[in-house]
Write a structure and sequence with these properties.
CATH architecture of the largest domain: 2-Layer Sandwich
Helix content: 40-55%
Number of domains: 3
Order of helices and strands: EEEHHEEEEHEEEHHH
Strand order of the largest sheet: 4-5-7-6
Structural class: alpha/beta
Shape: flat
CATH superfamily of the largest domain: Metalloproteases ("zincins"), catalytic domain
CATH topology of the largest domain: Zincin-like
Number of strands: 10
Length: 221
C-alpha cells in the first residue's frame, strides 16, 4: 500500500516505514501520473528497502522453538511439532520437524546438528552429480559453518559449502555448487569465469540475485 503526503515541497521523496508501507512525499499540485512515474523509476530501490526491512524484522524475531513455528528445508517451510516423547530429540518427517518437549530448551543446538547431517548428505550428493554432469573435477568436499560465505574452492580443489545452504531452494544450491566448480578451472572472477558459469547456468544472475536478497533467511538458526 502506498501513502501520499502532499506539502509545499518542490521534489518527490520516498521512504519505507516500519510497517512496510511506501510513503511518498510530493508537491501539492504534482499530477498523480508523475508520482507513479517516480515510483516506477525507483522500483529497484523500493524492493531493496523492503528486503532490508524484512531482514531487520527477522533479526528481531529469533526462533523460540514452539509448536507451529516454520523451519526451512530446501526452500520450503515446514511446521514444528512438539512431541511428549523423549526420543528422538529432533527429527524431520518430510512434512514437519518433530521436537521432543524434553529438549525444547536445546532447540537451536539440535536444529543445527540435524541441518548439518542433512546438508552433508544432500550437498555431497549434489556436488558429485553436478560435477559429473558438467565435466568438472574436484579433490574433496568439506562442510563448513560459514554464515555469509556460501562456498569456496581451494587451490588444491577442495570445495567447501556451508551447511546453511540446505535451507535454500535446490536451484540456489545448484548455483553455488556450479560457481565453486567453475573455480576449479578459473580461480578468479574474471569474464572468462562468469562465461563459464553462464555456459552451465544461463540464468545464474537471477539465482545470484535471489541469494543476495534472501541470504539472511539462511541464518535464522
Amino acid at each position: 500500500m502506498t501513502r501520499i503526503i502532499r506539502s509545499r515541497r518542490r521534489t518527490v521523496g520516498l521512504e519505507i516505514n516500519e510497517e512496510g508501507q511506501l510513503v511518498v512525499r510530493a508537491p501539492l499540485y504534482l499530477p498523480e501520473s508523475e508520482i507513479k512515474a517516480v515510483i516506477r523509476r525507483h522500483q529497484r530501490w523500493i524492493e531493496n528497502k523492503l528486503v532490508e526491512l524484512e531482514q531487520r524484522r527477522q533479526k528481531k524475531r529469533p526462533k523460540s522453538f514452539v509448536a507451529g513455528e516454520k523451519y526451512l528445508y530446501l526452500g520450503q517451510e515446514f511446521p514444528l511439532i512438539l512431541s511428549p516423547r523423549p526420543k528422538p530429540a529432533l527429527a524431520f518427517t518430510g512434512r514437519a520437524f518433530i521436537l521432543s518437549g524434553v529438549y525444547q530448551n536445546r532447540g537451536k543446538e539440535l536444529f543445527q546438528k540435524l541441518y548439518q547431517r542433512m546438508a552433508r548428505a544432500y550437498l555431497r550428493r549434489r556436488l558429485e552429480q553436478l560435477a559429473r554432469l558438467n565435466g568438472f573435477k574436484f579433490k574433496k568436499f568439506r562442510l563448513s559453518s560459514a554464515r555469509t560465505r556460501w562456498g569456496s574452492c581451494s587451490a588444491k580443489g577442495t570445495i567447501s559449502l556451508t551447511w546453511r545452504l540446505v535451507l535454500a531452494p535446490p536451484e540456489i544450491i545448484d548455483y553455488v555448487i556450479i560457481h565453486e566448480l567453475a573455480h576449479t578451472r578459473e580461480k578468479n572472477h574474471s569474464r572468462v569465469f562468469w562465461n563459464l558459469v553462464a555456459e552451465h547456468l544461463p540464468d545464474f544472475r537471477q539465482r545470484r540475485c535471489w541469494l543476495k536478497q534472501n541470504g539472511f533467511r539462511l541464518n535464522i538458526i
